[in-house]
Predict the 3D structure of the following.
Amino acid sequence: MAEKNENKKDGGFNFPPVGGGKNIKTPKFNGYWLYIILALLIIGYQFFNMGTEPVRTTWQEVKTKMLEKGDVEKFIVISNKGQVNVYLKPDKIENYSQLKSKGFRNSAPGPQFYFTIGSAESFDKNIAEAQQTMPGAEGVVVDYDKEYDGWGNIISFLFPIALLIFIWIFFFRRMSKGTGGPGGVFNVGKSQAKLFDKDTNIKVTFKDVAGLAEAKQEVEEIVSFLKNPDKYTKLGGKIPKGALLVGPPGTGKTLMAKAMAGEANVPFFSMSGSDFVEMFVGVGASRVRDLFKQAKEKAPCIIFIDEIDAIGRARGKNPNMGSNDERENTLNQLLTEMDGFETNSGVIILAATNRADILDSALLRAGRFDRQIYVDLPELKDREEIFKVHLKPLKLADDVDIPFLAKQTPGFSGADIANVANEAALIAARKDKNKVEKQDFLDAIDRIVGGLENRSKVIKVSEKKAIAYHEAGHATASWLLEHAHPLLKVTIVPRGKALGAAWYLPQERQITTKDQLLDQMCSILGGRAAEELTFGQISTGAQNDLERATKQAYAMVTIFGMSEKIGNLSYYDSSGQSDFSFTKPYSEKTAELIDAEVKAMVEQAYARAKKLLEDHREQHKQVAELLLEREVIFSDDLERILGKRPWKDEDEETETQEEKESDSQKTETEKTEEDSK
């Protein structure tokens, strides 16, 4: 009975076991064998029913050898082929040796011979003459008929149809690779979402998401909504319909969604925004409908749309002016499905984008995306946690200090930190080390920030000297300015496109004052000022510095309102949906005033940098000469030449405050313990 049940499950033709009832696996019957058997039957039928081919001859031979002897029984004229078939009398077939070699027997129905004619009229004339002159030809029957090649006609009719069907299947299978997977073009309107449920093994959890405590809490709460909805609905509240993850690239938005799929015990549909976009009209809206249809069937569930800005871009006011109707139709269908007349109970939409400023306002309103979770670049403590996650698989040396690495990577995203860890491991392996050391991480950071060292580049002595004094100008100016970023390292070894580079440790400020921005601008222009003071001429090496200074000055005037003549005005549109596409939001007179203010601000910072280097000319020369000698100098060298900076680092001040608070808390707890005793 067990064997029978197994055979039923296999769903094919199963043969009885062979060899004394032993449990032998029988092969499954393939459907293609049906086609093979059918073809063999047709061929066999044709072979066994195929008559013997008649022998070709001529009228003269028939007349002299057959008619005279009276061996011919009848003639059948095939009018459509211009041919006459000759049928011999059954008892006369054995008299012809050429028929014996063909396999003719006395019982063969014939025809045994055939010959061609010019026309039926000429043959009638010839047979009439023969019947008059030959006694054996008097009783011969002459008949007329037409022959058709049945299989030939069928093949000639079916072959073009079969060819068209083959071409159709071939091309549509090729098209199905990019338009809907199994089912081909007929499933082009079906959703391409990947389904992750409890049976799917997803290794990413919330433990793999380091930092982002607030954002992680929001996402964990959504998972809690679906696991235990009564906890939140018993007070009359409603489960949020959607959440939007917003933040710069590489901050962990998609990773958080993966962790959500790994933690949730509900179905998780994952899809990219570009999956809705297709060359066919109406496919995007159809895929949206199919996605939500599947989600409703599996509710409660989560739908995750990555890079939603591909379809959620703000709709144009004029449909005829450069807008994509297909994309807008997809967005309209998405808006309807998210918050239309139909209820999507138990379906939560999670989306991610790094371009929230270009999303349509109707998509962002409450009821569609109730929550916008901002995933920002990691802070110092967050970077420490991220480093701990990415350094787990690495074999680390004892000198690797994670807090130090976190301080060396300000402004790095989670993806950047992962790249640093991987690059450090590759550098250590290149040097045949058994463990990844601290210097490997520093080299990795330098390579990511500045590019690969290019020591083979040929640089003239005069150019190298100019580069050294240029970089020394940056270093000296930043060291002597209060609000400039503290310097870490200066090098004149070419990296990437840069001939020299300076590394700073930016202070992680939440707000920046005007004095701080002016000090930074002065530090940026220190290289150009050093060239003019030392050599009496300027070069193209300060192009990047001038670009940065100009952009910062324009931002101070037009965005931050730090110009007295312009006033407290900001012409920046943070929503990204302004109507200032073709015109500026200010007059030509104001534009001239902005240009004048920016120029004055840059020139003032440049004059300040020149005066600063003029006052410390000798120290600046020492820094440059040391840089020429060593090619790389550090902050300790600057402290030895320029002296210790009189200003305390803001990060150190915050750390000391935290230490003081922790010490005060300890003392308070000790006092309470003594009082209790």
